[in-house]
Amino acid sequence: MGYVSAVPVPQPRAARAAVPTGGRRSLAAALLLGALGATVVLLSAGQIWAEGTASVGGGSVPVEADGGAVTGVPTALAIVGLAALFAVFAVRRTGRTLVAALLALSGAGAALAAVLGASDSAALDAEAARISGDTAAAVAGLTHTVWPYVTAVGAALILLAGLFALRFGKSWPAMGGRYERSGTPRGGRKAPATDPDRPEDLWKALDRGEDPTHGG
Fold first, then answer.
1. Is the pLDDT of residue 213 over 90?
2. What is the pLDDT at residue 162?
3. Do residues 194 and 215 lie in contact, with contact meaning Cβ atoms separated by under 8 Å?
């Protein structure tokens, strides 16, 4: 008479490897997007965002303002996002979700600040007032470059990295997951007994850093 076994049927190796492979791909995508986005934001924020002219002594002189003068928000949030990107691997469970959300919010905030800065004239007005010595001076012929929008694109990449972390972060490994804080392997197993009469056992013991000639 047959019986029903309670032992689970092993799944094919391909099925077991599907999740880790997907996790590795999403991890690589998040790292690439986050690092690339932060780099773009930091570099483009240092470029000229706005240009114009200021009246000085009956003439006009050119004035310009870089992204840092227009708004420092994208740079600050890019640094926060970059820190959050690497912090994702140092935390687990709820902590990882919170850090991933911070990463996404950093990208969204930086993108919004960059778009708003694309039409801002306060930085150039302040520069015109400084050059002319007239606090009421305003810049003329105001134009904006493409760099605020490049910054917004970089911030959007940070946002995407955060969304990847929120969606797939649970399957990502954590730093130090294999070892406890003491530096010893988690749940360390007792080394198998070494038979001095078997050369393969001696090689395995040496590979583990043990002295095969020491008994016990």
1. no
2. 93
3. no
Residue 52 sits at φ, ψ, to 5 deg, of -175, -165
CB–CB of 38/74 below 8 Å? no
Q: b/e per residue, 134-158, with b = 16+ CB within 10 A?
A: eeebebeebebbebbbbbbebbbbb
Tokens describing residue 192: 């198998």
* DSSP 3-state of 54: strand
| Among the listed residues 67, 87, 35, 54, the one whose alpha carbon sits nearest the alpha carbon of residue 151 | 67
pLDDT digits (tens, 9 = 90+) for 33-75: 999 999 999 999 999 998 888 777 677 778 888 899 899 999 9
Please give the angle made by the CA atoms of 29, 34 and 37, to the nearest 5 degrees. 120
Identify whether the C-beta of residue 49 lies closer than 8 Å to the C-beta of residue 145.
Answer: yes
Distance CA 113, CA 78 (A): 11
The DSSP line for 112-159 is HHHHHHTT--HHHHHHHHHHHS-TT---EEEEE-SHHHHHHHHHHHHH
- The answer to whether 177 and 56 have CB atoms below 8 angstroms apart is no
Rounded distance, CA 161 to CA 155, Å? 10
Which of these, 63, 94, 88, 82, lies nearest to 164 by C-alpha position? 88
Tell me, what's the pLDDT at 193? 59
Distance CA 45, CA 121 (A): 16
Per-residue pLDDT at 196: 54
